[in-house]
């Protein structure tokens, strides 16, 4: 018996990526219908009432009155690891399990994190521009550049992505410290060469601080004026998680008053970003368009995890990576 799969996506998702998604849900195993977030609510309700399982790529908010019609859905599967933009509470209220991608994009995001560390440390965009325009004069001959070797890197959030960052940094011979509300076991710390350190000590002593937290009430503005005031001069801040983790006014001040050497960003308060954003126009900011987890390798792993979860449901087994406790 085939599963009735509803595939939900944003209008901006390119056709090639939509085709890739559908390759993982072949007929006759899956009967697939499509929906975007711009589909009228009445049509959304009909489709959710029809579906056995739903693939959200990406996961965005649906109001309770729409979700309620899908209360017989066996699984809502997100292809991302984050779920702060999805109506988790509504799904839980109606008894619908919601799963994330099981860390499928952790390696991709971790690589991008280290890429940003290197790009800020060597001012890669400026160096590229100087090379392509022939304007070599005026550079500081490396006096404003740094290696990762020997640097104290503080990882805040030690889940799949944070641990993957630590694993990569071992190869750069960085000194890795981490903070998480749940300490890792000793064998993991030894394997990754990471030392558990209180949050304030991470803030005070790190050369580079990188954020790997979910966005929620407890993590909002976890880096603010107080934390910037505790940092060493010329600290680098990397954020590939959510912009809400950082107080943006305090961030702008720290970038312009010499507190921060620079920042590497992949997430923003408003996405897509806008021209003349005061932070993004600064010369000590390296920015990418929320693409850290967007690689072909990560897509394939996320889709493989998703289809396996749907097959588990079809076998009346409990799905993996549930994030709403259902």
From TrEMBL:
<keyword id="KW-0520">NAD</keyword>
<dbReference type="GO" id="GO:0051287">
    <property type="term" value="F:NAD binding"/>
</dbReference>
<dbReference type="InterPro" id="IPR006139">
    <property type="entry name" value="D-isomer_2_OHA_DH_cat_dom"/>
</dbReference>
<dbReference type="InterPro" id="IPR029752">
    <property type="entry name" value="D-isomer_DH_CS1"/>
</dbReference>
<keyword id="KW-0560">Oxidoreductase</keyword>
<dbReference type="Pfam" id="PF00389">
    <property type="entry name" value="2-Hacid_dh"/>
</dbReference>
<dbReference type="Pfam" id="PF02826">
    <property type="entry name" value="2-Hacid_dh_C"/>
</dbReference>
<comment type="similarity">
    <text>Belongs to the D-isomer specific 2-hydroxyacid dehydrogenase family.</text>
</comment>
<feature type="domain" description="D-isomer specific 2-hydroxyacid dehydrogenase catalytic">
    <location>
        <begin position="42"/>
        <end position="324"/>
    </location>
</feature>
<dbReference type="InterPro" id="IPR036291">
    <property type="entry name" value="NAD(P)-bd_dom_sf"/>
</dbReference>
<dbReference type="GO" id="GO:0016616">
    <property type="term" value="F:oxidoreductase activity, acting on the CH-OH group of donors, NAD or NADP as acceptor"/>
</dbReference>
<dbReference type="InterPro" id="IPR006140">
    <property type="entry name" value="D-isomer_DH_NAD-bd"/>
</dbReference>
<feature type="domain" description="D-isomer specific 2-hydroxyacid dehydrogenase NAD-binding">
    <location>
        <begin position="115"/>
        <end position="292"/>
    </location>
</feature>
<dbReference type="InterPro" id="IPR050223">
    <property type="entry name" value="D-isomer_2-hydroxyacid_DH"/>
</dbReference>
<protein>
    <recommendedName>
        <fullName>Lactate dehydrogenase</fullName>
    </recommendedName>
</protein>
């Amino acid at each position: 018996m085939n599963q009735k799969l509803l595939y939900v996506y944003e209008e901006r998702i390119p056709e090639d990526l939509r085709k890739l998604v559908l390759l993982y849900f072949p007929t006759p195993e899956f009967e697939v219908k499509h929906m975007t977030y711009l589909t009228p609510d009445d049509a959304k309700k009909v489709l959710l009432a029809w579906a056995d399982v739903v693939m959200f790529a990406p996961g965005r908010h649906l109001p309770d009155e729409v979700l309620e019609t899908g209360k017989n859905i066996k699984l809502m599967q997100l292809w991302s690891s984050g779920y702060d933009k999805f109506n988790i509470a509504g799904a839980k209220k109606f008894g619908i399990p919601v799963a994330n991608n099981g860390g499928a994009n952790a390696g991709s995001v971790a690589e991008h994190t280290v890429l940003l560390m290197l790009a800020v440390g060597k001012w890669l965009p400026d160096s590229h521009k100087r090379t392509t325009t022939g304007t070599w004069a005026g550079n500081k001959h490396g006096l404003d550049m740094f290696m990762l070797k020997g640097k104290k890197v503080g990882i805040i959030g030690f889940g799949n992505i944070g641990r993957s960052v630590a694993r990569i940094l071992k190869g750069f011979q960085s000194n890795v410290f981490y903070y998480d509300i749940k300490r890792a076991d000793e064998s993991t710390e030894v394997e990754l060469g990471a030392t558990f350190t209180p949050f304030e000590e991470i803030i005070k002593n790190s050369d580079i601080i990188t954020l790997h937290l979910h966005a929620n009430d407890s993590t909002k503005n976890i880096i603010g004026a107080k934390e910037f005031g505790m940092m060493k001069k010329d600290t680098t801040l990397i954020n590939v998680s959510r912009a809400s983790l950082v107080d943006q006014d305090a961030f702008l001040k720290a970038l312009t008053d010499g507190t921060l050497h620079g920042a590497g960003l992949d997430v923003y308060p408003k996405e897509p970003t806008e021209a003349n954003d005061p932070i993004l126009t600064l010369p000590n900011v390296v920015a990418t368009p929320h693409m850290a987890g967007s690689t072909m390798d990560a897509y394939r792993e996320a889709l493989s995890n998703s289809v396996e979860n749907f097959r588990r449901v079809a076998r009346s087994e409990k799905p993996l990576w549930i994030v709403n406790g259902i």
